[in-house]
Amino acid sequence: MTTPDDHPRGDERSDRELLQAHVDGDAAAFGELFARHRDRLWAVALRTMGHPEDAADGLQDGMIAAFRRAGSYRGDAAVTTWLHRVVVNACLDRMRSAKIRRFEALPDDVEDRGTVVATAVHDDQPEAVAEDAERRRRVLDALATLPAEQRAALVLVDMEGYPVAEVAEMLGCAEGTVKSRCSRGRTKLAQLLADLHHPAGDPPHGNPPPDGPVQPSVRPRGPPAP
Amino acid sequence: MTESSGLPPEQEAVRRLLAEARHDGPPPPEVVSRLDDTLADLVAERADADTSPGRVVDIGSRRRRIAGIGLLAAASVVVAGVAIGQVLPRGGGDASDSSAGSASDSSLAEAPTSEDDGGAESGTDLDGGADSQAREPQESFLSPGLADRPTLFSDDDEDIIGQLVEIRPDATDARQRLRSLAALRSCEGVEPGRSAALVAATVDGESGLVVFRPPVGEAQDVELYVCGDPEPVRTVTLPSP
Q: What does the UniProt keyword field contain (chain B) (predicted)?
Protein backbone atom coordinates (compact mmCIF):
# COMPACT_ATOMS: atom_id res chain seq x y z
CA MET A 1 0.00 0.00 0.00
CA THR A 2 1.85 3.05 -1.19
CA THR A 3 0.34 6.18 0.18
CA PRO A 4 1.44 9.75 0.51
CA ASP A 5 2.22 8.71 4.02
CA ASP A 6 5.18 6.80 2.68
CA HIS A 7 6.03 8.72 -0.43
CA PRO A 8 4.71 12.25 -0.61
CA ARG A 9 4.79 13.62 -4.11
CA GLY A 10 6.86 16.71 -4.78
CA ASP A 11 6.28 19.32 -2.13
CA GLU A 12 3.16 17.56 -0.91
CA ARG A 13 3.12 17.06 2.83
CA SER A 14 3.02 13.49 4.10
CA ASP A 15 0.06 12.17 6.06
CA ARG A 16 2.03 12.39 9.25
CA GLU A 17 3.04 15.97 8.54
CA LEU A 18 -0.56 16.89 7.83
CA LEU A 19 -1.81 15.23 10.99
CA GLN A 20 0.86 16.93 13.06
CA ALA A 21 0.05 20.26 11.42
CA HIS A 22 -3.59 19.75 12.36
CA VAL A 23 -2.66 19.03 15.96
CA ASP A 24 -0.49 22.15 15.91
CA GLY A 25 -3.42 24.26 14.79
CA ASP A 26 -3.23 24.32 11.00
CA ALA A 27 -6.89 24.77 10.10
CA ALA A 28 -6.58 23.36 6.60
CA ALA A 29 -4.40 20.35 7.29
CA PHE A 30 -7.05 17.89 8.40
CA GLY A 31 -9.25 18.64 5.42
CA GLU A 32 -6.36 17.97 3.08
CA LEU A 33 -5.52 14.75 4.88
CA PHE A 34 -9.08 13.48 4.95
CA ALA A 35 -9.72 14.36 1.32
CA ARG A 36 -6.68 12.34 0.40
CA HIS A 37 -8.22 9.15 1.84
CA ARG A 38 -11.89 9.99 1.60
CA ASP A 39 -12.79 7.81 -1.38
CA ARG A 40 -11.36 4.68 0.11
CA LEU A 41 -12.80 5.39 3.52
CA TRP A 42 -16.15 5.88 1.85
CA ALA A 43 -15.83 2.54 0.09
CA VAL A 44 -15.10 0.81 3.38
CA ALA A 45 -17.95 2.59 5.16
CA LEU A 46 -20.37 1.85 2.33
CA ARG A 47 -19.61 -1.84 2.17
CA THR A 48 -19.49 -2.22 5.94
CA MET A 49 -22.74 -0.40 6.62
CA GLY A 50 -24.54 -1.66 3.54
CA HIS A 51 -26.54 1.46 2.84
CA PRO A 52 -25.33 4.83 1.50
CA GLU A 53 -27.11 6.89 4.14
CA ASP A 54 -25.78 4.81 6.98
CA ALA A 55 -22.35 4.87 5.40
CA ALA A 56 -22.48 8.65 5.24
CA ASP A 57 -23.36 8.73 8.93
CA GLY A 58 -20.56 6.35 9.80
CA LEU A 59 -18.01 8.19 7.72
CA GLN A 60 -19.04 11.49 9.26
CA ASP A 61 -18.78 10.03 12.76
CA GLY A 62 -15.34 8.74 11.93
CA MET A 63 -14.22 12.05 10.53
CA ILE A 64 -15.36 13.89 13.64
CA ALA A 65 -13.62 11.38 15.88
CA ALA A 66 -10.40 11.59 13.89
CA PHE A 67 -10.49 15.38 13.91
CA ARG A 68 -10.86 15.51 17.65
CA ARG A 69 -8.63 12.61 18.52
CA ALA A 70 -5.73 13.46 16.26
CA GLY A 71 -3.64 14.19 19.31
CA SER A 72 -3.95 10.58 20.40
CA TYR A 73 -2.25 9.27 17.27
CA ARG A 74 1.02 7.81 18.48
CA GLY A 75 2.64 7.06 15.16
CA ASP A 76 2.78 3.30 15.67
CA ALA A 77 0.80 2.65 12.51
CA ALA A 78 0.46 4.51 9.24
CA VAL A 79 -1.91 7.44 9.37
CA THR A 80 -4.15 5.79 6.80
CA THR A 81 -4.38 2.69 9.00
CA TRP A 82 -5.31 4.87 11.93
CA LEU A 83 -7.94 6.68 9.86
CA HIS A 84 -9.43 3.40 8.72
CA ARG A 85 -9.51 2.19 12.29
CA VAL A 86 -11.36 5.28 13.46
CA VAL A 87 -13.88 5.12 10.62
CA VAL A 88 -14.49 1.39 10.90
CA ASN A 89 -14.96 1.69 14.65
CA ALA A 90 -17.42 4.52 14.10
CA CYS A 91 -19.35 2.35 11.66
CA LEU A 92 -19.33 -0.62 14.01
CA ASP A 93 -20.42 1.56 16.90
CA ARG A 94 -23.34 2.79 14.84
CA MET A 95 -24.35 -0.71 13.96
CA ARG A 96 -24.03 -1.88 17.54
CA SER A 97 -26.09 0.98 18.79
CA ALA A 98 -28.91 -0.33 16.64
CA LYS A 99 -29.72 3.18 15.63
CA ILE A 100 -29.57 2.43 11.95
CA ARG A 101 -32.59 1.13 10.25
CA ARG A 102 -32.76 -2.51 9.44
CA PHE A 103 -30.79 -3.40 6.40
CA GLU A 104 -32.56 -2.79 3.19
CA ALA A 105 -31.51 -3.83 -0.26
CA LEU A 106 -29.23 -1.29 -1.87
CA PRO A 107 -31.30 1.18 -3.84
CA ASP A 108 -30.62 -0.02 -7.37
CA ASP A 109 -27.05 1.14 -7.18
CA VAL A 110 -28.11 4.70 -7.87
CA GLU A 111 -25.40 5.97 -5.59
CA ASP A 112 -23.13 3.03 -6.00
CA ARG A 113 -20.62 4.48 -8.40
CA GLY A 114 -18.66 1.27 -8.33
CA THR A 115 -21.39 -0.39 -10.30
CA VAL A 116 -21.23 2.27 -12.95
CA VAL A 117 -17.50 1.82 -13.26
CA ALA A 118 -17.67 -1.94 -13.23
CA THR A 119 -20.39 -2.23 -15.82
CA ALA A 120 -19.05 0.40 -18.16
CA VAL A 121 -16.94 -2.22 -19.87
CA HIS A 122 -20.15 -3.99 -20.92
CA ASP A 123 -21.87 -1.01 -22.45
CA ASP A 124 -22.52 -2.87 -25.63
CA GLN A 125 -23.73 -6.00 -23.85
CA PRO A 126 -26.85 -5.20 -21.86
CA GLU A 127 -27.27 -8.77 -20.71
CA ALA A 128 -23.78 -8.87 -19.29
CA VAL A 129 -24.41 -5.54 -17.58
CA ALA A 130 -27.57 -6.86 -15.99
CA GLU A 131 -25.82 -10.05 -14.96
CA ASP A 132 -22.97 -8.13 -13.34
CA ALA A 133 -25.39 -5.90 -11.49
CA GLU A 134 -27.41 -8.85 -10.29
CA ARG A 135 -24.37 -10.73 -9.10
CA ARG A 136 -23.16 -7.68 -7.25
CA ARG A 137 -26.52 -7.24 -5.61
CA ARG A 138 -26.55 -10.85 -4.51
CA VAL A 139 -23.06 -10.59 -3.06
CA LEU A 140 -23.89 -7.41 -1.16
CA ASP A 141 -27.16 -8.81 0.15
CA ALA A 142 -25.34 -11.88 1.37
CA LEU A 143 -22.60 -9.78 2.91
CA ALA A 144 -25.22 -7.86 4.85
CA THR A 145 -26.33 -11.03 6.61
CA LEU A 146 -22.97 -11.44 8.34
CA PRO A 147 -22.19 -10.18 11.82
CA ALA A 148 -20.69 -6.69 11.71
CA GLU A 149 -17.19 -7.79 12.73
CA GLN A 150 -17.03 -10.49 10.06
CA ARG A 151 -18.33 -8.08 7.48
CA ALA A 152 -15.76 -5.44 8.35
CA ALA A 153 -12.95 -7.96 8.14
CA LEU A 154 -14.07 -9.20 4.73
CA VAL A 155 -14.55 -5.70 3.38
CA LEU A 156 -11.04 -4.72 4.40
CA VAL A 157 -9.27 -7.93 3.41
CA ASP A 158 -11.15 -9.28 0.40
CA MET A 159 -12.72 -6.16 -1.05
CA GLU A 160 -10.11 -3.54 -0.30
CA GLY A 161 -7.17 -5.88 -0.40
CA TYR A 162 -5.44 -4.74 2.78
CA PRO A 163 -2.96 -7.19 4.30
CA VAL A 164 -4.26 -9.14 7.27
CA ALA A 165 -1.67 -7.58 9.56
CA GLU A 166 -2.82 -4.09 8.65
CA VAL A 167 -6.47 -5.03 9.05
CA ALA A 168 -5.65 -6.42 12.48
CA GLU A 169 -4.36 -2.97 13.41
CA MET A 170 -7.42 -1.32 11.92
CA LEU A 171 -9.79 -3.55 13.84
CA GLY A 172 -7.74 -3.60 17.00
CA CYS A 173 -7.49 -7.38 17.17
CA ALA A 174 -5.03 -10.17 16.51
CA GLU A 175 -4.18 -11.33 13.01
CA GLY A 176 -5.59 -14.74 13.86
CA THR A 177 -8.89 -13.11 14.75
CA VAL A 178 -9.01 -11.37 11.39
CA LYS A 179 -8.30 -14.63 9.59
CA SER A 180 -10.91 -16.42 11.62
CA ARG A 181 -13.54 -13.78 10.95
CA CYS A 182 -12.75 -13.84 7.24
CA SER A 183 -12.87 -17.61 7.09
CA ARG A 184 -16.17 -17.88 8.90
CA GLY A 185 -17.62 -15.09 6.81
CA ARG A 186 -16.53 -16.68 3.55
CA THR A 187 -17.94 -20.03 4.61
CA LYS A 188 -21.32 -18.45 5.24
CA LEU A 189 -21.18 -16.53 1.97
CA ALA A 190 -20.18 -19.65 0.08
CA GLN A 191 -23.41 -21.26 1.22
CA LEU A 192 -25.51 -18.25 0.34
CA LEU A 193 -23.86 -17.74 -3.03
CA ALA A 194 -23.38 -21.36 -4.01
CA ASP A 195 -25.00 -20.89 -7.39
CA LEU A 196 -22.69 -18.01 -8.24
CA HIS A 197 -19.49 -19.93 -7.93
CA HIS A 198 -20.47 -23.25 -9.39
CA PRO A 199 -17.97 -24.64 -11.88
CA ALA A 200 -18.12 -23.24 -15.39
CA GLY A 201 -20.69 -24.98 -17.52
CA ASP A 202 -23.26 -25.23 -14.79
CA PRO A 203 -26.29 -23.65 -16.41
CA PRO A 204 -27.88 -20.64 -14.76
CA HIS A 205 -31.06 -21.27 -12.84
CA GLY A 206 -32.91 -18.10 -13.61
CA ASN A 207 -33.37 -15.00 -11.54
CA PRO A 208 -33.13 -15.39 -7.80
CA PRO A 209 -36.00 -14.11 -5.70
CA PRO A 210 -35.76 -10.38 -5.07
CA ASP A 211 -35.93 -10.70 -1.32
CA GLY A 212 -35.14 -13.16 1.37
CA PRO A 213 -32.43 -15.75 1.62
CA VAL A 214 -30.89 -17.28 -1.43
CA GLN A 215 -32.81 -20.35 -2.45
CA PRO A 216 -31.25 -23.65 -3.51
CA SER A 217 -30.32 -23.67 -7.15
CA VAL A 218 -32.41 -26.77 -7.81
CA ARG A 219 -35.98 -26.45 -6.68
CA PRO A 220 -38.42 -29.29 -6.28
CA ARG A 221 -41.31 -29.21 -8.66
CA GLY A 222 -44.92 -29.76 -7.82
CA PRO A 223 -46.78 -28.95 -4.64
CA PRO A 224 -44.93 -28.90 -1.38
CA ALA A 225 -44.78 -32.14 0.53
CA PRO A 226 -47.51 -32.50 3.14
CA MET B 1 -4.24 -9.94 -1.20
CA THR B 2 -2.31 -12.02 1.18
CA GLU B 3 -5.38 -14.06 1.92
CA SER B 4 -5.75 -15.48 -1.55
CA SER B 5 -3.09 -18.16 -1.35
CA GLY B 6 -3.93 -21.53 0.08
CA LEU B 7 -7.65 -20.94 0.43
CA PRO B 8 -10.10 -23.73 -0.28
CA PRO B 9 -11.70 -23.31 -3.73
CA GLU B 10 -15.06 -22.25 -2.31
CA GLN B 11 -13.48 -19.56 -0.14
CA GLU B 12 -11.31 -18.41 -3.00
CA ALA B 13 -14.41 -18.09 -5.16
CA VAL B 14 -16.12 -16.00 -2.49
CA ARG B 15 -13.04 -13.86 -2.14
CA ARG B 16 -13.15 -13.23 -5.89
CA LEU B 17 -16.84 -12.35 -5.80
CA LEU B 18 -16.20 -9.90 -2.98
CA ALA B 19 -13.32 -8.31 -4.83
CA GLU B 20 -15.58 -7.82 -7.85
CA ALA B 21 -18.19 -6.17 -5.65
CA ARG B 22 -15.83 -3.64 -4.16
CA HIS B 23 -16.79 -0.02 -4.47
CA ASP B 24 -14.78 2.36 -6.61
CA GLY B 25 -15.21 6.05 -6.84
CA PRO B 26 -15.90 9.03 -4.65
CA PRO B 27 -18.83 9.50 -2.30
CA PRO B 28 -21.93 11.06 -3.83
CA PRO B 29 -21.82 14.87 -4.02
CA GLU B 30 -24.35 15.27 -1.25
CA VAL B 31 -22.18 13.20 1.07
CA VAL B 32 -19.09 15.22 0.12
CA SER B 33 -21.02 18.39 0.80
CA ARG B 34 -22.17 17.12 4.17
CA LEU B 35 -18.66 16.12 5.16
CA ASP B 36 -17.35 19.51 4.08
CA ASP B 37 -19.99 21.27 6.16
CA THR B 38 -19.21 19.15 9.19
CA LEU B 39 -15.52 19.77 8.81
CA ALA B 40 -16.15 23.50 8.57
CA ASP B 41 -18.13 23.29 11.82
CA LEU B 42 -15.29 21.44 13.50
CA VAL B 43 -12.71 23.95 12.35
CA ALA B 44 -14.90 26.84 13.48
CA GLU B 45 -15.49 25.16 16.83
CA ARG B 46 -11.78 24.76 17.36
CA ALA B 47 -11.08 28.31 16.25
CA ASP B 48 -13.65 29.59 18.73
CA ALA B 49 -12.08 27.60 21.51
CA ASP B 50 -8.62 28.85 20.59
CA THR B 51 -9.61 32.51 20.53
CA SER B 52 -11.98 32.66 23.46
CA PRO B 53 -10.77 34.58 26.51
CA GLY B 54 -10.89 31.41 28.53
CA ARG B 55 -8.01 30.04 26.51
CA VAL B 56 -5.64 32.73 27.67
CA VAL B 57 -4.99 30.47 30.58
CA ASP B 58 -4.11 26.92 29.74
CA ILE B 59 -6.77 24.32 30.36
CA GLY B 60 -4.92 22.67 33.17
CA SER B 61 -4.56 25.79 35.22
CA ARG B 62 -8.15 26.69 34.47
CA ARG B 63 -9.29 23.30 35.68
CA ARG B 64 -7.25 23.62 38.84
CA ARG B 65 -8.60 27.10 39.42
CA ILE B 66 -12.21 25.94 39.04
CA ALA B 67 -11.57 23.06 41.34
CA GLY B 68 -9.94 25.41 43.82
CA ILE B 69 -12.86 27.77 43.70
CA GLY B 70 -15.21 24.85 44.17
CA LEU B 71 -13.26 23.63 47.14
CA LEU B 72 -13.17 27.07 48.69
CA ALA B 73 -16.89 27.51 48.17
CA ALA B 74 -17.60 24.11 49.63
CA ALA B 75 -15.57 25.00 52.66
CA SER B 76 -17.56 28.24 52.92
CA VAL B 77 -20.80 26.30 52.91
CA VAL B 78 -19.48 24.07 55.65
CA VAL B 79 -18.37 26.98 57.78
CA ALA B 80 -21.65 28.79 57.22
CA GLY B 81 -23.61 25.70 58.02
CA VAL B 82 -21.72 25.07 61.22
CA ALA B 83 -21.98 28.68 62.28
CA ILE B 84 -25.68 28.88 61.60
CA GLY B 85 -26.28 25.64 63.34
CA GLN B 86 -24.57 26.91 66.43
CA VAL B 87 -25.96 30.43 66.45
CA LEU B 88 -29.56 29.91 65.48
CA PRO B 89 -32.02 28.15 67.72
CA ARG B 90 -33.68 25.02 66.45
CA GLY B 91 -36.39 25.82 63.99
CA GLY B 92 -34.33 28.47 62.27
CA GLY B 93 -34.68 26.59 59.07
CA ASP B 94 -35.57 29.58 57.00
CA ALA B 95 -32.34 31.36 57.66
CA SER B 96 -30.25 28.33 56.98
CA ASP B 97 -32.21 27.51 53.99
CA SER B 98 -31.79 30.87 52.42
CA SER B 99 -28.13 30.87 53.25
CA ALA B 100 -27.57 27.59 51.55
CA GLY B 101 -29.74 28.68 48.72
CA SER B 102 -27.81 31.80 48.03
CA ALA B 103 -24.59 29.89 48.17
CA SER B 104 -25.85 27.43 45.67
CA ASP B 105 -26.96 30.14 43.35
CA SER B 106 -23.71 31.96 43.36
CA SER B 107 -21.23 29.17 43.38
CA LEU B 108 -20.42 25.87 41.82
CA ALA B 109 -19.64 24.39 45.15
CA GLU B 110 -22.95 23.41 46.54
CA ALA B 111 -23.56 20.66 44.11
CA PRO B 112 -21.84 18.07 46.19
CA THR B 113 -24.44 18.62 48.87
CA SER B 114 -27.03 17.01 46.73
CA GLU B 115 -24.89 14.19 45.56
CA ASP B 116 -26.60 11.42 47.38
CA ASP B 117 -29.90 12.83 48.40
CA GLY B 118 -32.29 15.38 47.07
CA GLY B 119 -31.23 18.95 47.51
CA ALA B 120 -34.64 20.01 48.67
CA GLU B 121 -34.70 17.40 51.39
CA SER B 122 -31.33 18.27 52.76
CA GLY B 123 -32.20 21.93 52.69
CA THR B 124 -35.44 21.63 54.59
CA ASP B 125 -34.60 19.03 57.19
CA LEU B 126 -32.39 20.99 59.49
CA ASP B 127 -33.61 19.29 62.59
CA GLY B 128 -30.97 16.85 63.59
CA GLY B 129 -27.96 19.00 63.04
CA ALA B 130 -26.59 21.20 60.37
CA ASP B 131 -23.12 19.97 61.30
CA SER B 132 -23.52 16.52 59.97
CA GLN B 133 -25.38 17.65 56.94
CA ALA B 134 -22.76 20.19 56.15
CA ARG B 135 -19.85 17.86 56.74
CA GLU B 136 -21.07 14.99 54.60
CA PRO B 137 -21.18 16.99 51.45
CA GLN B 138 -17.69 18.24 52.03
CA GLU B 139 -16.38 14.76 52.55
CA SER B 140 -18.00 13.52 49.40
CA PHE B 141 -16.68 16.53 47.57
CA LEU B 142 -13.17 16.06 48.78
CA SER B 143 -13.10 12.40 47.98
CA PRO B 144 -15.72 11.55 45.44
CA GLY B 145 -16.85 8.04 46.21
CA LEU B 146 -16.84 5.26 43.68
CA ALA B 147 -20.04 3.68 44.91
CA ASP B 148 -22.46 5.66 42.79
CA ARG B 149 -20.32 5.92 39.72
CA PRO B 150 -21.16 4.04 36.59
CA THR B 151 -18.72 1.25 35.91
CA LEU B 152 -17.46 1.06 32.35
CA PHE B 153 -14.92 -1.07 30.56
CA SER B 154 -13.11 0.17 27.50
CA ASP B 155 -13.14 -3.21 25.80
CA ASP B 156 -16.83 -3.78 26.34
CA ASP B 157 -18.23 -3.72 22.85
CA GLU B 158 -21.59 -5.16 23.72
CA ASP B 159 -22.99 -2.90 26.39
CA ILE B 160 -20.97 0.26 26.36
CA ILE B 161 -23.16 2.18 23.98
CA GLY B 162 -26.27 1.43 25.99
CA GLN B 163 -24.49 2.37 29.19
CA LEU B 164 -23.29 5.66 27.75
CA VAL B 165 -26.71 6.54 26.41
CA GLU B 166 -28.09 5.78 29.85
CA ILE B 167 -25.68 8.02 31.72
CA ARG B 168 -25.65 10.79 29.14
CA PRO B 169 -28.42 12.79 30.85
CA ASP B 170 -26.21 12.85 33.94
CA ALA B 171 -23.69 14.92 32.07
CA THR B 172 -26.11 17.81 31.89
CA ASP B 173 -27.56 17.37 35.32
CA ALA B 174 -26.45 20.24 37.53
CA ARG B 175 -25.64 18.06 40.51
CA GLN B 176 -23.69 15.66 38.39
CA ARG B 177 -21.73 18.45 36.74
CA LEU B 178 -20.59 19.72 40.06
CA ARG B 179 -19.76 16.27 41.25
CA SER B 180 -17.73 15.80 38.11
CA LEU B 181 -15.81 18.94 38.89
CA ALA B 182 -14.71 17.29 42.09
CA ALA B 183 -13.80 14.14 40.21
CA LEU B 184 -11.87 16.17 37.69
CA ARG B 185 -9.90 17.77 40.48
CA SER B 186 -8.67 14.39 41.59
CA CYS B 187 -8.19 13.12 38.05
CA GLU B 188 -4.75 14.41 37.21
CA GLY B 189 -3.66 14.38 33.63
CA VAL B 190 -7.10 14.50 32.07
CA GLU B 191 -7.95 17.78 30.43
CA PRO B 192 -11.25 17.42 28.66
CA GLY B 193 -11.60 21.04 27.63
CA ARG B 194 -14.24 23.62 28.25
CA SER B 195 -17.00 22.47 26.00
CA ALA B 196 -17.19 18.92 27.27
CA ALA B 197 -19.78 17.55 29.68
CA LEU B 198 -18.37 15.18 32.27
CA VAL B 199 -19.55 12.22 34.24
CA ALA B 200 -17.33 10.69 36.89
CA ALA B 201 -17.04 6.96 36.39
CA THR B 202 -15.05 3.89 37.18
CA VAL B 203 -13.24 3.04 33.96
CA ASP B 204 -11.47 -0.28 33.64
CA GLY B 205 -11.63 -0.62 37.39
CA GLU B 206 -10.01 2.72 38.09
CA SER B 207 -11.19 6.21 38.77
CA GLY B 208 -11.99 7.90 35.51
CA LEU B 209 -14.11 10.28 33.54
CA VAL B 210 -16.60 10.01 30.75
CA VAL B 211 -16.32 13.04 28.50
CA PHE B 212 -19.28 13.88 26.30
CA ARG B 213 -18.25 16.15 23.45
CA PRO B 214 -20.72 18.62 22.00
CA PRO B 215 -22.84 16.91 19.37
CA VAL B 216 -21.93 17.70 15.80
CA GLY B 217 -24.73 17.03 13.39
CA GLU B 218 -26.17 13.66 14.24
CA ALA B 219 -23.14 12.37 16.11
CA GLN B 220 -21.66 12.85 19.52
CA ASP B 221 -18.20 11.69 20.51
CA VAL B 222 -17.76 10.24 23.96
CA GLU B 223 -14.34 9.56 25.45
CA LEU B 224 -13.44 7.35 28.38
CA TYR B 225 -10.44 8.39 30.44
CA VAL B 226 -8.61 6.69 33.23
CA CYS B 227 -7.26 9.27 35.65
CA GLY B 228 -3.59 9.86 35.13
CA ASP B 229 -3.67 9.06 31.44
CA PRO B 230 -4.09 12.10 29.20
CA GLU B 231 -5.26 9.95 26.31
CA PRO B 232 -8.71 8.37 26.17
CA VAL B 233 -8.77 4.63 26.59
CA ARG B 234 -11.83 4.40 24.40
CA THR B 235 -13.80 6.68 22.15
CA VAL B 236 -17.35 5.89 21.16
CA THR B 237 -19.58 7.75 18.79
CA LEU B 238 -23.21 8.02 19.82
CA PRO B 239 -26.13 9.37 17.87
CA SER B 240 -26.86 12.91 19.02
CA PRO B 241 -29.41 13.17 21.80
A: Membrane, Transmembrane, Transmembrane helix
Q: How many CA atoms lie within 13 A of B65 on its CB side?
A: 8
Nearest to B165 by CA among A97, A69, A91: A97
Together in a domain, B89 and B114? yes
In this structure, what CATH number is given to the domain that contains residue A40? 1.10.1740.10
B70 and B115 in a single domain? The answer is yes
Tens of pLDDT, residues B50-77 = 665 444 434 444 444 445 555 555 555 5
C-beta of residue B92 within 8 angstroms of C-beta of residue B126: yes
Q: How far apart are CA B103 and CA A40, in angstroms?
A: 56
Structural domain total, chain B: 2
Strand arrangement, sheet containing B234-239: B151-152, B197-203, B206-212, B219-226, B234-239
| CA A80 – CA B154 distance, rounded (Å) | 23
Q: Which domain holds residue A90?
A: 11-100
Position A80 in a domain: yes
Residues of B whose CB is below 8 A from A69: 221, 223, 232, 235
ipTM over cut 0.85? no
- Cβ-nearest to A158 among B3, B46, B218: B3
CA dihedral sign, ordered A47, A48, A51, A56? negative
Give the chain A residue whose CA is nearest to the CA of B29. Answer: A111
Domain annotation covers residue A170 = no
- Give pLDDT, residue B25: 87
Short-list A93, A46, A98, A74, CA closest to A169: A74
Dist CA A18 CA A58 (whole Å): 23
| Residue A43: inside a domain | yes
The reported pTM is 0.55
